[in-house]
Model the fold of this input.
Amino acid sequence: MSSKIESVSGRKTAQEHVKTLGYRFVARLGEGTFSKVYLTEYTSRDAVGVEKLACKLIDTAVCSAKFRRKFLPRELAVLLRVRHPHIIRIQAIVKCHSKIFIFMRYAELGDLLTFILAHGAIGESQSRIWGRQVGLALQYLHESGIAHRDLKCENILITTNFNVKLSDFGFARHVMRSHEVELSSTYCGSFDYASPEILKGTPYNPKASDMWAYGVLLYVMLNKSMPFKGRTKAVYELQLARKWQFRSRVRSKLSHQVKSLVTNLLEPNPIIRYTIDETLINDWFMDVPKLRALNPDEFVCLAEARSVTRACSSDVLHVQSKLRQSGSDVITTIKQVEQRDAPQFKSNLSLKTSTILLLQDDSTVNDAPPDDEERPEPADEPDDPQQQPSPDDTRSL
Ligand SMILES: Nc1ncnc2c1ncn2[C@@H]1O[C@H](COP(=O)(O)OP(=O)(O)O)[C@@H](O)[C@H]1O
Ligand SMILES: [Mg+2]
Done:
């Protein structure tokens, strides 16, 4: 990994530092447990144009010690590595005193949960397109030796071209490569998407639990409701007894292929639950000719995931050492993607130019109201426009 190190002196506030790098905060987009997400505008040094980006801001001064020491370094280490057409693109990571700024592609249509709540359940053909895109992202992660561990609608983002991007690697962790199992004993993620083995509280295979969550995700898209409701013990028993069903209003409309796929994903035994490879060659996807082959970007990324051997633990150690550096006036570049118009996915996944910026300042970034000035259209990634979903349900989850 090559990285560029340069020193910057001065007493600018965090916002001013970030502004000097070309980022301007415009509005707040969302909020998580330890983060706030903002819409920002980025003007590159060559000032070729303005790009809308989302910025996830994490203040390590106010998050839990466990999150700061364990999950945050893992999240950043994973973000340094991953690159896939169906995973949100990271443009830069900046540390400014206690604050971490993660600049990424802005998903204009927001997250999938908000979308479903606004428009209803997703029709089967659109669910298949989005389900396959998330599935390919998951296949890439699993082949890269990474489990996501927080797959849910809130972490699926939708672009203006109606493509979805997997995001939020806050609970992601490195696991062994395919065919090997490294059990997890951290019971993380969302209760609604938790597999029976997670609810049971015994060490679990995180890839298999990702597949359970993926099954819940498909169910939610198709039904606009959760397959299981209740308290932990009751839900666990329902899961083991396979006591769930598609909602009556969609049951007769859905194909037997998708019903069979979801059944094989909501399989209580993780040993025989569908893997991501078994899922992607399922009839539900294969019956549609245009979904049988990978496009060149998907192909290149999967091939690289399969071929690149990485020292993942050294990534985490690298990030941890960067996070420990406090009080220094240093900017360290770990990831900085300037060429937004350059063809993507042509090079090796290892980072050629990447960035962590360490800025000395502890001032806060305030919620800046959106301004009224006209902004240029955001540059879009070269993704194919997909068909629009057909809203078919208006009940809340
Ligand atoms: N790139 C983005 N574009 C648009 N909205 C986003 C983007 N990233 C995050 N959001 C919004 O912010 C929310 C929280 O972001 P997330 O990364 O999931 O944080 P957390 O780890 O706190 O859950 C998302 O559910 C989504 O609504
Ligand atoms: Mg999230």
About this structure: The CA atoms of residues 109 and 158 lie 5 Å apart. The longest strand covers residues 50-59. The domain at 110-307 is CATH 1.10.510.10 (Transferase(Phosphotransferase); domain 1).
